[in-house]
Every structure is written in structure tokens, then in C-alpha cells.
Design brief:
12 helices, homodimer, alpha/beta, 401 residues, five-stranded mixed β-sheet, four-stranded parallel β-sheet
């Protein structure tokens, strides 16, 4: 019997440990795995031989339950870009030396599109140099920007947080009798999926959010001011949803107008404060009360609002990734796809890592309205079955005035 | 039979509508009230004759349930400081003309210490000019800074949000293997009660938050830097809780070092960004990864995390305020007090509005440690029975590394 090592990578989610729990569960049920290891901080754990035996700590269903309901990455995470075998042969030698040391037959890497690049590289290398080692991927990201699947594990829980929070903020923002604008910034560098889920806060037409700006459409300052002024004609408290990554027509981030930008290992700019730039615009050009809110880390770690659907799907994807590895596959990513619209049904399967690695699925242009300040019916058609009515914890929303 | 008018004032909470529901419930059960009115946007509704009949909309228990679980103020709110009868006789004439128009016998005002100033002024005026009109107060504030009572309605729900969020953020912040500091700003201009509830996120010594700064102790920049450096010796991810109103030794707000300050009708400065000032300090003086988080409006409107204890207490206080008015009292505030420590028990009662109006209860100095960067055992002794274990929605918190 061979051993298994699991690692987690990229930004954490509420559901990423559910996937880990699924992998452990399948390892236990398979009878084909001897020891279960975890690599600390993603691929760095294999590079630096930071590997811990975790199987003996997760033998009781209670512990798997606790793991499933722990937000963030229980094994730690990293943002580390592996070179190619030609560029960085020493990285591959270190990783496979570590895998041999622990007699690993199965590597499962849980992560987003950058992490699936690691799965692709390692599995390609293994095919030639270590064909007895299977390398498989299990997806996760709150951004929902992974290709090859209907939606990403972790997205539904973040969406539940976003929709619930917009519904509650709407109650709060309407309390005073003075006109106000509230700018709420949601995570999403290049894809607006999570920001779009704010639309699920609406119970009837005219409900918040009143304007939604996604990074897929260039943000125009003058149009924004005109949009807000128009909404203020009919709403005392205008609530605006924006993605952190909205950018100007010249391609620069709106947030770049404010403070310093930093760059991570994948060359992504660490963004801050698009909401504060827009707050400044509203205060100076409209002159009304304005508040900037950032949903910050809460949107990706609010385990108390985890979607049970999300946790279940994430667990199953982990089980599938290991199951297919045991059956001799390598270089694949476990996915789920929509096989029927009405009734909504999904099916689980796999795709080659190359279909997911380094790609980003953006919101289609016609899922955003012509004016670029709201989403359209196809987006609702996509989102609604994912987030059943019971998933959004809407407040009472009883106004007496 | 006389009529009743209710109004809500000050910053909204998750529980302020539970108090309104309690008042309506007692009005229904008393058999002594004819019509139930709501004044829109607090005292402004009585000044401007913006009064709506609400009793006929709240006759079904389902509607009272919905109202109880709606965050923010269903009647709208205001921040409006009433003059004295000598300064502004026209205000009193307008208000009592409005009360006469609707044949009001009972006025219940739900609000914080500023709002209780309104209760005191109106009840004093009524004693002389309209002795058949009773004016009573029901308390609310997430700040927990009201005198004359053990704790303030609205505080427990906000505390549940704060403690839960710190526990979840702790999971998220520990994910990477680089040193980091996270500064989390909690509401509280002059009193640190709500920030102190972050301590309830701790399950064992050493858990986050690692440093807690309240406005009751002057904030010293050099000491802060030394505190953070010391915690970084033992914690990779240092999490710091601060009140929005922490201030420098010279009395100026720490947030005043950043951007514009605005002033509201009560002369309170609208604060923004103490967390961003501290983020800047950490980045420049320590040079590590640092993130500033503001719990913003979410901490006062997260109805999905409402404390059921809080909702029940808030409802009962509303019932008592009206009940005592029906029995001939005026100028009182409904309160709850701790009558036994072990077992923890509370009793409901009333105090004169003057004991609550315009006063602020701050955290006692010895409930904060000597160094001014944490709370002490008396604070835990006070908080623990308010927030039973079941109230804090702690995540699984299972770390495998």
C-alpha cells in the first residue's frame, strides 16, 4: 500500500477543509492507503520537507466533522509559483525526493487556477520521472473563476455571506432621513462572480443593491456619478456593489488611484480601497453622506454562514480526486457540472488540469446589462438554483415607514 | 382610551425592533390602548407630524416575529438634539401639538444616552404642560455605555458578531507562513465594551485577539509598536482589536491623523480609520504584512447572528416601559440589573431618565490590564454569563499544522 499526501494552496475559503475531509474519508474507505500526510503551506511543504502525518488525528467522524466546519486551510496555504522543470530542476528534485521519503503514491492538491498549474506541472513531470505517483487536483475558490466546471467549491458559502450581508446592510442604510450612498467592496480581481451574488439580496425590484459594477466592464467615473445621481432620485439610501478589481478604461485599477499597490508571487497586484476611491468621488462630486464598506476577510472565512450544499459538494470533489487517483488516473481535476437546467441537476467528473490551470472564467458580457451597472436575467438563471431560497439568511425586512 | 406613539432614535441595532415589538405586544395585551402610532425618524416625526398608524399592521404574531427579527430601526431613526423649553419653545409646542392631534397618552422613546435626554426633557415639560401624557424610555445601544443598567439591549447581539468574527478571522489569518499583523476596528467612540467582547473569541490562552486597545486608556504609538513586536515573537499572525475611538495621550483621536473628521448634531466626531493609521504604523515601523479590517455596519445589523437572549431582553424592556406608563409613571427608563452573580440572574425595573441621559458608562480602569493592551478577569467575569458558550458561533478551529 502507498501513502497519500494532501496540500492546500491559494486564498482560503470556508469549504476548503471540507474537501480535505472528503479526501481523508475516501482514503479510509478505500482500504488502499496506508498513511495520510499533509504538506504544510502547500507546495512549500513538499519543497522544504514540512510534512505531517494527519491520518491518525482524523479517524473519528467527529474530527472529520470539526475539520469540515473549520474555515481557512487547516494545513496552511501559500502563494508560490513553481518554475518549469527546465527553469528550476532543483525544485522538482526536492519535491520528488520528499515524496519518495514518505513513500507517497498519491498527491492531491486543493487550490485555484494558479494551484492547478502546480498540478499540471507535477503530473507531467511524474509521468516521465515517477510514473507510480499520481498527482490530482481538487478545485476551490470564492472567486468562481475556474474553467471546466459549473461553479467553484467555496463560492456558494461566500455568496451566502455576500447576499445575506447586503440584505442586512440595506435595513441599516435606510434608517436616517438624509440621502446617502454606501459603497460595498467585494473580493474579485478580474472576475465579478462574487460581487454579482449581491443581487440575491433583492426580494423585489428596487431592492438593494441598486448598482453593481464588475471588473468585466471598464469603470467610467462620469457614468458612475450619473448612475448614482439617477438612483438617488428614487432611493434615499443608494447601495452600490463593486468588485475590488474594477478598472478604468485605460486598464489601470480604480484602486490604484489610492495608496500603494503590492504585487504577489503570481504578479497579481494586491488591491486596496476601490471603495474608498468611489467614496471620495461621491463626496466631492455629489456631496452627500457616503460610507465605504469592505467585506474583507469575513466573506471568505464566515464559517457560521457556510452553505451546506457547498460543504457537501466540496467533500465529494475531494473524494473523487483521490478515488480516480487510486484507479490509476493522474493530472486531472475533479469537477462538477450542470447536466440539467430544469430541474437543476449536477454531475461530478474530472477534466485535465490543463483545462483549469492559469485560466480565468469571466462573467460573459451579456450577463451584465448594456449600461454596465447591473446583472441580467442569464446571471440570475445561473445563480438561483445554486443558492436556494433557504440559503440566504434574509432579515425580517419589515419597514413601517 | 388613549393612544400610544413609539419612536426610535440613534444608531440602529439588531434588537431595537424587538423592543418595538414588545411595546406593541403589551399595548395589545393591556386592553388600555386604542391606536398604536409610530413617529418616523425619532423625535423629528413628532416635530414634523410624520406619524403613521402601525397597530393595524402588527396584529398577527407572525408580523411581530418578523419585526423582532428585522435589524435596524423599522420606524427610521435620527440624531437630533432637542433644545431646552427656554431655548426652543417652538419645538415643544410643535411636539405637543402633534401629540394632541393624535390623542396620545403614552410616548415611548427607544434609544441611547442622547435619546434619553429627549425622554427627560419631554417628560419634565409634560409634567407641567400636559400631565396626562406619559413619556417613557426604553434603552438600546451596541456600545453598552448606558448608566443605570447591567448591560444595554443590542449589545449582546453585536458582541456575538464580534466574538464570532474574531474566532473566524483567526483561522484565516494563520494560513500563510509569513509574519503578519491584522488590525480589526470595532465600534465604540468613548467606551470599549464592544471591543472587549473580542476576548470571547479565545478558547485557550494565546488565542486571538493578542492585543486589545480600548479608548479608556490613552494609546501610545511607541508602546503599540513594542507590544506588536513582542507578540510577533510567539505568534506568526498577530491579531489586534481596537476601538474606533482610541485616542492619543493629548486627547486627539488616533483616527484624526488620517483624513477628514466630521461632527454630528451632538458634537460627536464621526471617526474613520484608526485601523488604517495603525496599519500604516506597522508597515512603516515593523515592515511586515499588515491588513486593516473594519467591522463597519455589519456588527450592528447582522440579524442572522442575533442573540436570542438579547432579543428576549429587548422585548421585555419595551413591555415594561409601556406597562409602567399605563400605571401612571413618566420620565423613567426600563432597565435590567444583575441581582445575583452565581447563579447569574437579572431583574427588570426602571430608573429616572436623568440617571441615563447624557451619561456614559466607561470600562473601569482595573478591568483593563496595567499595560493597557488587554482586559482583565473582572471583564471576563462580567461578560461570560451574558454570552453563554452557545452564543458564540465558534468555527471548528482544527489546525493540522
Amino acid at each position: 500500500m502507498k501513502n497519500l499526501v494532501v496540500a492546500q494552496s491559494g486564498g482560503p475559503t470556508v469549504a476548503i477543509n471540507a474537501t480535505l475531509a472528503g479526501i481523508v474519508e475516501r482514503a479510509i474507505t478505500s482500504g488502499m492507503i496506508d498513511k495520510i500526510y499533509g504538506a504544510k503551506h502547500g507546495i512549500k511543504g513538499l519543497l522544504d520537507d514540512q510534512v505531517v502525518e494527519i491520518g491518525s488525528r482524523l479517524t473519528h467522524p467527529d474530527e472529520l466533522y470539526r475539520l469540515t466546519h473549520t474555515p481557512s486551510s487547516a494545513l496552511g496555504s501559500c502563494r508560490f509559483k513553481l518554475g518549469t522543470p527546465e527553469e528550476k530542476p532543483e525544485q522538482y528534485e526536492a519535491i520528488f525526493r520528499c515524496l519518495r521519503k514518505y513513500d507517497i503514491g498519491y498527491v492531491i492538491y486543493i487550490g485555484g487556477n494558479d494551484s492547478m498549474d502546480t498540478v499540471e506541472k507535477l503530473s507531467e513531470y511524474a509521468k516521465i520521472h515517477a510514473p507510480d505517483i499520481a498527482v490530482m487536483g481538487a478545485p476551490k475558490t470564492i472567486d468562481n473563476d475556474l474553467c471546466g466546471m459549473d461553479h467553484s467549491p467555496g463560492f456558494l458559502s461566500a455568496a451566502k455571506y455576500v447576499a445575506t450581508t447586503f440584505a442586512e446592510l440595506s435595513c441599516d442604510c435606510n434608517v436616517y432621513d438624509v440621502p446617502s450612498v454606501t459603497i460595498v467592496e467585494v473580493m474579485g480581481r478580474n472576475a465579478g462572480w462574487l460581487t454579482a451574488t449581491s443581487v440575491l439580496a433583492r426580494e423585489k425590484p428596487g431592492d438593494a443593491p441598486h448598482l453593481i459594477y464588475l471588473p468585466e466592464v471598464p469603470f467610467e467615473r462620469e457614468k458612475f456619478v450619473a448612475d448614482v445621481k439617477e438612483k438617488m432620485q428614487t432611493h434615499r439610501a443608494v447601495i452600490v456593489a463593486i468588485s475590488e478589481g474594477i478598472h478604468n478604461p485605460d486598464g489601470s485599477y480604480v484602486s490604484a488611484g489610492f495608496g500603494v499597490t503590492q504585487t504577489d508571487a503570481f504578479g497579481h497586484q494586491a488591491l486596496t480601497g476601490a471603495n474608498r476611491v468611489l467614496e471620495h468621488i461621491v463626496r466631492t462630486e455629489i456631496g452627500c453622506k457616503c460610507r465605504a464598506i469592505e467585506l474583507s476577510l469575513m466573506q471568505r472565512c464566515a464559517a457560521h454562514l457556510a452553505s451546506e450544499t457547498d460543504l457537501a459538494e466540496s467533500r465529494i470533489l475531494g473524494e473523487i480526486a483521490l478515488d480516480r487517483a487510486i484507479h490509476g488516473e493522474s493530472g486531472l481535476i475533479a469537477v462538477l457540472n450542470r447536466v440539467s437546467e430544469d430541474p437543476y441537476r449536477i454531475a461530478f467528473g474530472t477534466v485535465p488540469a490543463s483545462e483549469v490551470a492559469n485560466r480565468e472564467r469571466k462573467v460573459p458580457r451579456d450577463w451584465i446589462n448594456e449600461a454596465g451597472n447591473d446583472v441580467t436575467e442569464p446571471m440570475l438563471h445561473y445563480l438561483r438554483p445554486l443558492m436556494g431560497e433557504r440559503e440566504v439568511a434574509r432579515p425580517g425586512h419589515l419597514s413601517l415607514i
